[in-house]
Automatic annotation (TrEMBL):
Reactions this protein catalyses: beta-D-fructose 6-phosphate = dihydroxyacetone + D-glyceraldehyde 3-phosphate; beta-D-fructose 1-phosphate + H2O = D-fructose + phosphate; L-glutamyl-[protein] + S-adenosyl-L-methionine = [protein]-L-glutamate 5-O-methyl ester + S-adenosyl-L-homocysteine
Residue ranges the record marks as coiled coil: none
Protein name: Sugar phosphate phosphatase
Swiss-Prot/TrEMBL domain comment: Subfamily III proteins have a conserved RTxK motif about 40-50 residues from the C-terminus; the threonine may be replaced by serine or cysteine.
Entry keywords, A to Z: Hydrolase, Manganese, Metal-binding, Methyltransferase, Nickel, Transferase
Keyword Oxidoreductase: no
A Pfam family of this chain: ARMT1-like_dom
Domain of life of the organism encoding this protein: Eukaryota
Damage-control phosphatase ARMT1-like metal-binding domain sequence ranges: 66-428
Main function: Metal-dependent phosphatase that shows phosphatase activity against several substrates, including fructose-1-phosphate and fructose-6-phosphate. Its preference for fructose-1-phosphate, a strong glycating agent that causes DNA damage rather than a canonical yeast metabolite, suggests a damage-control function in hexose phosphate metabolism. Has also been shown to have O-methyltransferase activity that methylates glutamate residues of target proteins to form gamma-glutamyl methyl ester residues. Possibly methylates PCNA, suggesting it is involved in the DNA damage response.
Length: 450
């Protein structure tokens, strides 16, 4: 019997129950294949990357890093074995500031007899976050590779491989920024396109491919129209009306936009384009980008990714328009109009509904916000509590008590969770396209408080 079969033997051959948080034991949920196939694949690809790049790593970190590589590989292999054998979770052992929290969560998820959670039977959001935290632990418990991001090069490669599409969007924007006669009608017409470029940027996510870059070659603006029929909910008109109306209020010159980022590479580029558009036309005055403090879900944006993306565009790329964009973004960072922040909460296994009680400082910060944009699938899962909602439950109900400010969620669907869909739509799409929830093919733009 293969280990995969062994896991299957422990599972239930049913869909997960509606309106409950996801758990991987339901074979017909997306969580099961992510746990039993995709996660082990991603972990083993991380190991293969280290082996393939050993010489370069030793050159950079010195010969002492050889033992580190060996120990990281052992830890990654143990992680795969633990998952595939549904072993109980263990405490984290590094000296990082978040370890106390993770170990407390482990205790909270253990039963009265002290039996620890296992991969198949515990809350799936916690489980998947724990997998990514354990990957990082393998590195941070080494000597030379403590701060090594094994996904950094692939993330930058993801950016480079999309240069053609970036150039097309860049040309459009630079021309636009140089025009002197842009009026409210133009803004009203074009702002939805900027939202949707950032939305579809979320398709390019390396966690689905073990780090292999997904090239985006088509013109992002053409794609916006071509993909419109794949938008299951499009509340962008509400967001656009709200933002355009706010331009009339000249008294408020302290409008902060918070963008809770997702992936580096092409997606980050499209987020920065949207941010530039919003700041150039004074929809907002300051933008705070929220990234990750440790490598997370393979391709999420860390400080290193953010800084080096802007640096790459400003100085290293061939294209003049992209250089010009890069320089604009560098200046926003220098002037403080843009800020990059990475709070610890985003790499903990909690939903956004828990921010208020667990991290009041962060919640208070988000209350200063004029508008919050949440990017991507994992942030969406955290927004709606990773609950397998009945698809017609309104989005504003699913976000629970996460109400610090007005909110826009831009998400391509890569997991089972849906909400706020019109009656019958989920049934209709699932009949014509059984994989509709898994591949980032469909998308939603949903708002709360607008
Ligand atoms: O990068 P995104 O859009 O947050 O997607 C991450 C998604 O990928 C997975 O890790 C695997 O499909 C999902 O569980 C997760 O929600």
């Amino acid at each position: 019997m293969t280990v995969d079969n062994e896991l299957i033997r422990l599972c239930i051959d049913e869909s997960p129950p509606r309106n409950q948080p996801l758990v991987a034991k339901y074979i017909r949920s997306f969580a099961f294949p992510v746990l039993s196939k995709l996660s082990p694949f991603n972990i083993s690809k991380t190991g293969s990357y280290l082996e393939a790049n050993k010489t370069a790593i030793l050159q950079k970190y010195g010969p002492g890093a050889e033992n580190d590589i060996t120990s990281v590989l052992t830890k990654l292999n143990t992680l795969i074995t633990d998952i595939l054998n549904n072993k109980p979770f263990r405490e984290l052992v590094s000296d990082n500031v978040d370890v106390e929290i993770w170990n407390k969560v482990l205790k909270d998820y253990s039963d009265e007899d002290g039996n620890r959670p296992t991969w198949l039977f515990t809350n799936w959001l916690y489980c998947e976050c724990y997998i990514h935290r354990r990957i990082f632990e393998a590195f941070e418990t080494s000597i030379y590779l403590k701060n090594y991001d094994p996904f950094y090069e692939q993330k930058m490669q993801g950016l480079v491989s999309c240069e053609d599409a970036m150039e097309l969007l860049g040309k459009f924007l630079i021309k636009y920024f140089h025009k002197e006669d842009i009026d409210i009608k133009n803004l009203h017409e074009d702002l939805p396109k900027m939202f949707k470029c950032a939305l579809w940027g979320n398709r390019c996510d390396l966690s689905q491919t073990g780090g292999d870059a997904i090239a985006q070659t088509e013109c992002p603006l053409v794609l916006v129209d071509a993909l419109q029929h794949l938008m299951l909910v499009d509340e962008s008109p509400k967001a656009v009306d709200f933002l355009c109306a706010s331009l009339n209020d000249a008294t408020n010159d302290d409008k902060i936009l918070d963008i809770i980022l997702d992936n580096a590479g092409y997606e980050l580029f499209t987020d920065l384009c949207l941010a530039d558009y919003l700041i150039t036309f004074k929809f907002v005055n300051t933008i705070r980008f929220h990234g990750k403090v440790i490598p997370w879900f393979i391709s999420d944006v860390t400080t290193q990714d953010f800084i080096n993306t802007i640096d790459y565009l400003s100085y290293k790329i061939k294209s003049d328009v992209l250089k010009e964009l890069g320089k604009r973004w560098e200046n926003y960072m220098k002037s403080g109009q843009w800020k990059f922040e990475c709070e610890q909460f985003w790499t903990l296994p909690f939903s956004f509904g828990q921010i208020k009680s667990l991290d009041n400082e962060l919640y208070t910060k988000l209350e200063e916000s004029f508008l919050i944009i949440s990017k991507g699938d994992l942030n969406y899962r955290k927004l709606v509590g990773d609950v397998y909602w009945n698809p017609t439950v309104p989005f504003i109900e699913t976000v629970g008590n996460f109400k610090p400010s007005k909110l826009i969620a831009l998400r391509t669907l890569k997991s089972d969770i849906t909400c706020g869909l019109p009656e019958g739509l989920a049934e209709h799409v699932s009949k014509t396209d059984p994989n509709w929830l898994k591949e980032g093919k469909y998308a939603v733009i949903q708002v709360d408080g607008i």
